[in-house]
Every structure is written in structure tokens, then in C-alpha cells.
Specification:
The protein is α+β, with helices and mostly antiparallel strands. The protein contains 16 helices and 16 strands. The strands form 4 sheets. The chain has a 5-stranded antiparallel sheet with strand order 2-1-5-4-3. A 5-stranded antiparallel sheet has the order 7-6-10-9-8. Helix 3 runs antiparallel to helix 4 and helix 15 packs across helix 16. The protein starts with a helix and ends with a strand. About 20% of the residues have low confidence.
Length: about 625
């Protein structure tokens, strides 16, 4: 299930990467939104300030009709000429009638809620819309800077806080003679209420709130802005310690996670009472990845490439299903098929080689469990086939040494020397592995019943030799070697026989094996005949041919050994302790058996899988 698990990991990584990107996008979106909020608040503050200045100028222009009205001028001159310090009633009546006419003449958008006509001393001669001034005989407005400047011929605008109400003020002088001081001034006051703030917000498209003495006076919101959020404006003024605010405008401040404001001071009389205005904006913040979905509309959803998303889902599903079919469905189907064949008797065990991964281990464990159950029940289990089970047990020892040569020296001095028959000798002990001419080792008579315990290869059946079996050919007697080619050397007195023989000679008899009866040869020192070691020289071409054949055979066996180890690992069989030396000794033993039985020249070994196990097949070759 490697592919399926890898695919699950890749899907998990893809989901994690997608979430990482979404979280990064959420953070970046919130950061960019906050930056845009700060810039937007600074822009709104300047826009509202400019709008208030324009509104004040237009209100001053609307009072021009009153400043040139003759009736109002005469009424103010009459009030200024009073000798007793009281305003004449005629002056009051004429001034009030003139204010009513002026009020009707001003456009509705710039009409003042309160109109005051004051004389040179600042006394209110007449008013309209302000009952407090009508009830007080000595009410005067000359103490306000805007009124005082207007009495001296200046146009002034200001913001006053009268009681609990805030007013936008415009003051204009009333002149009747350019050579003299103004006869008085006319003052128009427009209350800053909800309607005024909302009209200002509509013109500037900014949410604005007016405040004084730490509380909100009035406010108006732009389109889509919730007005209840403006209630928080002015509540944090006590915590504002911003030098820029005292200079005219504060830095952007966050009153809540989604509400930012900028406070701006109003010039004039109201500033000393903590009055000003604030612009506010809301921020659409995303709390998490799902915030994008909650804030999306139908147009946003329509821009999603649904065919591409469907293709991605389909491809991912096909890859996942293909991986599960390859690693789960197909092996499970093969297991069920073999189980059904075992049920009807077509198989006596699972074919391990047809499974992979965990299924192979499970199949191998099932086969071993079946064999163990059969053994406990007293039945006969399947065993790996080998040559002994097919050909019978091999002889314990070979009949003769493979490299012994008969000794038939020529007669010397014209005297015939009878050739003596070579007595049968017991086999020589195994030579060291480094000797290329050593006889194969004698295998133990007892061997383990399970070749997997020792690491030895087991052999399967092989095809019979071509043609009828023939007895091995009897070699023709070799001619006797010349006397000069034979020599006898006495072993050292110490009895050691470990010294290597001379080059080109093969040891025929050694210690532990009785030497053959050799006739005395004329001219050769025959002292200590009982301890002599007879050595016969071997032709060099014979030695070279034998060495080459064995080198080729070892190379072929090395390839067979490598294939055998590889297939055993594929089948999940142990290979510990199976060395090439042990492997080659087993091949030599079986090669000799086949050569003796079939009279073949050589044997070819090959590796294949039988019933989930690595096996060897031996094929006798005639040429």
C-alpha cells in the first residue's frame, strides 16, 4: 500500500498548503484593509473640514440680503441713537420685520435657524427663533469673538455651544454709510443636529459625528454605515494624548476591532469646550478562512472556475482509486482466487511469488501454518525436492582419486620391469580450498531435512539424459612413463608432510593412506622405502586444460549463486550463512553424481521458483 499511502500524504500536504495560503491571505487582507482604513479616515477628515468651510461661506453669502436691507439698517441706526440706553420699540419692530423678510429670501438649504440683529454695543435689537434672547432685556452677543469682529466690519464664521446645542454661526456687518462704523451686525445660527450631520455625510460620503464636552451631539452615516457605531465617538477623548490632535487632527484610532475614527478640532468658541467632529469608518475583517465565504456575494461566486475545480476533484479521485485498486483490490482478488482453487483442491498452497508486500508475507505465513497443522495432525508435508530424493543417496566416498596416475616405468639397462597392478586405495582426504585440483569434499551422511535451515540450495527434478543410458567408457591403459620422468624423494625425518609438492606434480599417497607397492628402480636411492612418497609428474597441457575448465565452471557457478540469492530474497527466504563456498561444494557433489550416473561431460545448473521457494534445476549435457 505504498502508493496509496503516498497519495494520502500528498493530499494531506496539498490541504495543508491550501490552508496555509488561505491563512496568509486572511492576514494580508486584514493588514491591507487596516491600511486602507487609516488612509480613508485621513481623507474623510479633510473632506468634512472643507465641506464645513464651504457651508459657512455660503451661509455668510446668504446673509448679504439682510446687511443691505434698508429697513434693518434704519432700525439699527435708531437703536444706536438712543440716549437713555434703551432700545426703542419702533427699532425692535422694524428690525424683526426685516429679519422675517430676509429669512424668507434665503434659499432653504442655507436658512438659519436663529437670526440675531445687534447694534453697535452688541445688544440684540431683534431675533427670530431664539426665545431666550426675547425674554431678556439685557441679552447681548457682543462678547463672542465672531460678533465683535462683525461689528468692526469683518465677516466671521464660528461654532457656538448654547446650552446643550451646538450651532454653526455666521456673522456679517450691517453698513449704511461707508464712511462710518457699521450700524450693527446680523448673525445667523444653524443648529448641528441629525439632519445637518446627515446632509453633510451625504455630500462628503463620509460618516461624521459632532461632539462636545465628551459626548456626541449629532451624527450622520454614509451609505451602509451603521449609525449605532457612532455612539462610541467621544467616549475615549480622555485617553487621547496626541500632539497632532491638539494641532488640529488626531492620528487614526481604533475604537473597536472593526471601527476606526479620526478626531478633528472645530475652530472657534466651541474648541475651548472640547468640541469637534470625528469621521468614522468600519473595517471588514476576516476572522478565518471561512470569512471569505461569508462575505462573498453572488457575483463573487459566479467568478469561480467551477469546471477547473471539478477536473481537479475528478483527477484526484481517479488517482486515489487507481492506487487502491492496484495495491488492495488486485492482490485481494488474487488471494481470493487462490483460496477458491485451494478449496476445490487445485492448489495445495498459495503461490507466494504472485503477491507483493504484506500480502506476500501473509501468504508465506499461511503456507507455513498449513504445513505446521499437517505435521501436528501426523500427515506428510511438502518438502523441497533435491537430488538425493530423486537419485538416491550418494556413495560415502568416491571409488578412487580423480587425479591418480598409474606408475609403469620403462625398463632400464635392457632388463624388463614387470608392470604391477595399482592396488585400490582409500580416497584421499579433502585438500585445502585453495588447491584447484583438490577432490570434492565428502558430504556428511546425515543432512538436515529442511534446506532452509542450513542455507543450502535444494534441487528440483531435471530432464533425463538424451538417449539410452550407457555405461561409462573404460579408459585405455596409458603407456608407462619413462624412467627419467620418475623420481622418489624421502620425506623429512621429522615426519611432517605439510610441505607443498614440487611444481607440476600431484600427490598420490600421503600420510594416513598406505602407499602403493612400487618396484625398486635402478639408480634411485631407495633408503627408507617404508616412508617414501611417490610423486609422478603431470604434463603441463593437462594441468592448463583442467585449470581452465575449473575456472569457467566457477564463473558459471558464481552467476548461479547470485541468481539463487536474489530469488531467495524475492521469495522472502533467509539467506544468512549461505556462502559461495558452501554453495559450490553442494553443486560439486551433485555434479559428480550426475556425471557418474549419466556419463555426461558437464552439468548445467539454473534457478527457478517452485511453490514460492527458490529451487535449482540440474541438466546433464552430453557435449
Amino acid at each position: 500500500m505504498v502508493i496509496s499511502r503516498l497519495w494520502y500524504v500528498l493530499l494531506g500536504v496539498a490541504v495543508a498548503v491550501a490552508l496555509y495560503v488561505v491563512y496568509i491571505a486572511v492576514g494580508e487582507y486584514n493588514r491591507q484593509t487596516t491600511r486602507a482604513l487609516m488612509e480613508g479616515l485621513a481623507s474623510d477628515s479633510q473632506t468634512v473640514e472643507w465641506a464645513l468651510k464651504i457651508d459657512a461661506r455660503r451661509r455668510l453669502d446668504a446673509l448679504l440680503a439682510a446687511s443691505v436691507d434698508a429697513t434693518l439698517q434704519q432700525a439699527l441706526v435708531l437703536a444706536d441713537s438712543s440716549k437713555d440706553g434703551k432700545i426703542p420699540e419702533k427699532a425692535k419692530a422694524d428690525a424683526k420685520r426685516a429679519l422675517a423678510a430676509v429669512h424668507e429670501a434665503v434659499p432653504a438649504d442655507y436658512r438659519a435657524d436663529i437670526l440675531l440683529a445687534i447694534d453697535r454695543d452688541g445688544r440684540v435689537v431683534a431675533n427670530m427663533g431664539y426665545d431666550v434672547a426675547a425674554s431678556a432685556e439685557d441679552f447681548e452677543a457682543g462678547g463672542y469673538p465672531a460678533a465683535n469682529d462683525a461689528l468692526h466690519g469683518w465677516l466671521r464664521d464660528d461654532v457656538w455651544l448654547l446650552g446643550s446645542k451646538m450651532y454653526v454661526v455666521g456673522a456679517r456687518p450691517v453698513e449704511y454709510d461707508a464712511a462710518q462704523r457699521p450700524a450693527g451686525a446680523i448673525i445667523g445660527l444653524k443648529e448641528i443636529n441629525g439632519k445637518f450631520a446627515q446632509d453633510l455625510a451625504n455630500r462628503t460620503r463620509a460618516s461624521v459625528a459632532f461632539y462636545a464636552a465628551g459626548r456626541k451631539i449629532a451624527g450622520g452615516g454614509a451609505e451602509g454605515f451603521p449609525l449605532d457605531k457612532l455612539d462610541a465617538v467621544g467616549g475615549d477623548l480622555k485617553t487621547v494624548d496626541d500632539k497632532t490632535y491638539h494641532d488640529g487632527r488626531s492620528e487614526p484610532r481604533m475604537l473597536a476591532a472593526d471601527l476606526g475614527v479620526v478626531y478633528t478640532r472645530l475652530p472657534g468658541d466651541v474648541w475651548s469646550q472640547g468640541g469637534g467632529f470625528a469621521v468614522a469608518r468600519t473595517k471588514v475583517a476576516l476572522a478565518g478562512p471561512m470569512g471569505f465565504l461569508s462575505g462573498a456575494d453572488d457575483k463573487d461566486k459566479a467568478n469561480v472556475p467551477w469546471p477547473l475545480l471539478g477536473a481537479v476533484i475528478l483527477i484526484a479521485a481517479l488517482i486515489g482509486i487507481g492506487a487502491t485498486v492496484l495495491e488492495h483490490t488486485l492482490p485481494l482478488r488474487e488471494l481470493l482466487t487462490q483460496a477458491d482453487r485451494m478449496k476445490v483442491g487445485a492448489l495445495d498452497g498459495l503461490h507466494v511469488a504472485r503477491f507483493r508486500g504484506a500480502y506476500r508475507l501473509a501468504a508465506q505465513s499461511i503456507n507455513e501454518g498449513i504445513e505446521r497443522a499437517i505435521e501436528k495432525a501426523g500427515g506428510v508435508t511438502r518438502k523441497p525436492a533435491d537430488l538425493e530424493s530423486i537419485l538416491g543417496p550418494a556413495p560415502a566416498q568416491p571409488a578412487m582419486s580423480a587425479f591418480s596416475f598409474p606408475l609403469s616405468p620403462e625398463p632400464q639397462g635392457g632388463l624388463p620391469t614387470p608392470s604391477l597392478p595399482t592396488p585400490a586405495m582409500p580416497p584421499a582426504p579433502p585438500a585445502p580450498p585453495s588447491s584447484p585440483f583438490s577432490a570434492p569434499p565428502i558430504p556428511s551422511a546425515s543432512r538436515p531435512s529442511n534446506p532452509f535451515d542450513t542455507g543450502e540450495p535444494h534441487f528440483a527434478s531435471f530432464p533425463p539424459a538424451v538417449g539410452p543410458a550407457k555405461p561409462p567408457p573404460v579408459p585405455a591403459p596409458k603407456p608407462p612413463l619413462p624412467a627419467a620422468a620418475m623420481r622418489a624423494t624421502a620425506p623429512p625425518k621429522s615426519g611432517r608432510t605439510g610441505a607443498p609438492p614440487p611444481s607440476g606434480a600431484t600427490l598420490v599417497s600421503s600420510r594416513g593412506m598406505p602407499p602403493p607397492v612400487v618396484p625398486r628402480i635402478h639408480g634411485v636411492n631407495s633408503a627408507d622405502d617404508e616412508d617414501q612418497t611417490t610423486v609422478a609428474s603431470v604434463p603441463a597441457d593437462v594441468l592448463a586444460q583442467a585449470a581452465g575448465a575449473m575456472a569457467d565452471e566457477n564463473a558459471d557457478w558464481r552467476l548461479v549463486y547470485e541468481d539463487f540469492i536474489r530469488i531467495k530474497k524475492q521469495c522472502g527466504e533467509p539467506t544468512d550463512g549461505l556462502t559461495f563456498e558452501k554453495f559450490s561444494l553442494t553443486l560439486k557433489k551433485n555434479r559428480d553424481q550426475l556425471v557418474d550416473k549419466h556419463g555426461c561431460k558437464r552439468v548445467k545448473f539454473s534457478v527457478y521458483v517452485k511453490e514460492g521457494r527458490a529451487s535449482l534445476k540440474a541438466t546433464p549435457l552430453k557435449e
